[in-house]
Amino acid sequence: MIVFKLTAEISEFLAKKKETGSTIGFVPTMGALHPGHISLINSSVAGNSLTVCSIFVNPTQFNDKKDFEHYPITLEQDIDMLEKAGCDVLFLPAVSEIYPNGTDTAKQYELGYLETILEGKYRPGHFQGVCAVVDRLLEIVQPHRLYLGQKDYQQCMVIRKMVELTGAATQIEIAPTLRADDGLALSSRNMRLNAEERALAVNIYESLCFIKREINTGNLQVLKLRAVNFLTEYGFKVDYVEIADATDLRLIDQWDGHTKLVALIAATLDQVRLIDNMLL
Length: 280
Ligand code: AMP
What we know:
By secondary structure, the chain is of the alpha/beta class. 41% of the residues lie in helices and 21% in strands.
């Protein structure tokens, strides 16, 4: 695996590879890699002649400074996992490579409704930061295919919208959420849970399963409230339990029995904020 730190160097390398007919798959990450990330690498390796992974803890997408400061960094182990998975190129940029004009001058993306709900509501500015970094990374890497995880359901929609707005020529591939044996969605943030919290964390997944099992046509308020109460009893601070149209994330309170739905949860255990979702 070749490691690049400079934008000019990776761009030149990849441009040459494209000229000679290579297809490029790209997996942007913030590091602290786990098998969920590696499943995206595997998809990219299977579908392209060259796989590029980036590790960049993007400061502009953290609305909470403490969350940014505590974000886990496990670079040596990440490199080892990427090499074993057959990743060809790792991009490890400094902040100045991604934001040469500083982080305050970023352009605004017209995300509309998508930015006003769920993560957009609870993490103001988060999706503008996500768009800024992914837009810039796409400009540098110019991949044929971009691999994203369903784990961040709203983020997939936001990036799709950003790609529409910018006209970037990349195809978006969404991979299913990889889970631990008990059902907890793998996440870099899980590393920050102690043993007791780790055991409790599975109740987010249990709540999603509960919703999937119990959902019926008509009013969904009581079902959502039961899930909130269940999580609160286990010590979670719940930001939201929501049910939305799976195609556009319009929040649904009254189900017609036909619309394809997704349930989404964000909740904090001690200082660690976890999100998960499930198609119903
Ligand atoms: P992150 O490093 O958290 O920014 O995640 C990088 C990419 O990996 C994003 O597209 C995530 O949606 C995806 N991802 C994170 N966790 C999982 C998981 N458990 N299964 C599949 N993909 C994941």
